[in-house]
Amino acid sequence: MRFAESMTDAAERRAPPRPSRPAALKVPKTAEVIARWLRQEMREMPLNPGDPLPSEAELRARFGVSRATVREALRLLESQQLVRIARGATGGARYSLPDIAMVAEHTGIYLEAHGATQHDFTEARLDLEPCMIGFIAEHADAGQIARLSESVAAQKSVRTDIVRFSREHERFYAILAELCPNKTLSMFLLIFRELIGAQTSLVGDDIRGRGAEFEKAITQHIHAKERLIELLAARDRDGAERWWHKHLAAQLTDLKAAGRGDMLLKAL
Fold first, then answer.
1. For a FRET experiment, which of 115, 144, 220, 248 has its CA 20 to 30 Å from that of 170?
2. Which domains does the chain have, with CATH numbers?
3. Mean pLDDT, the chain cut into blocks of 10 residues (268 residues total)
4. pTM of the entire structure?
């Protein structure tokens, strides 16, 4: 028995693994197929926002489907902000570019639903943002960097107003995203901008109520940006990365000291 068992074991070891049971296949609906086809066509054509897409009648004839199916496909694209549907005699589906607010909103909802905290968000920024800043340092030109200086000057002028300062702070991130030639990195900077704004609205009253501590924090923010601009202008990638890491690490320390690290992240 032992010999037979050992032979069986050896045979099982040599045998190819049994194929796992396939998961249930999801067969896309006709409307989803049409929406994907239109998405691909929009990528391949030199469309500008506002350009018309094929009419309902053209799409029905092309795919041999009902009006309801075509409209469902267009609604899918509309929910993805790739299509804007105008009503009336001169209406129809027109090409549109997705807004970053939609992406940030879904990101915020995901993080909020999964229990992400202020510490979690700031820690992620600490790990990711310096690399993005370093990339910008290598690619931005002097004319573009001057726009950052204008933003910091505007922040100085509203330093006592947390709401207006927050808006200028968000504009600073928007400019950074515009300076970044990498579309993916630019998107992350814009998502951070939107989420930072939501967190400021969550803790703004608490920050404002800290008086001298609030003034000190704003001064440090402005100084950090001024020094960053100097490093960007010098195309000092390593220096810019180290400086921004130091700046965000200080924010993380302040967050813990203020007892706000465990607060849940707020969606837009």
1. 115
2. 30-95 (1.10.10.10), 101-257 (1.20.120.530)
3. 39 52 73 94 90 92 95 95 84 91 94 96 97 95 89 93 89 95 96 91 64 82 96 96 97 91 90
4. 0.81
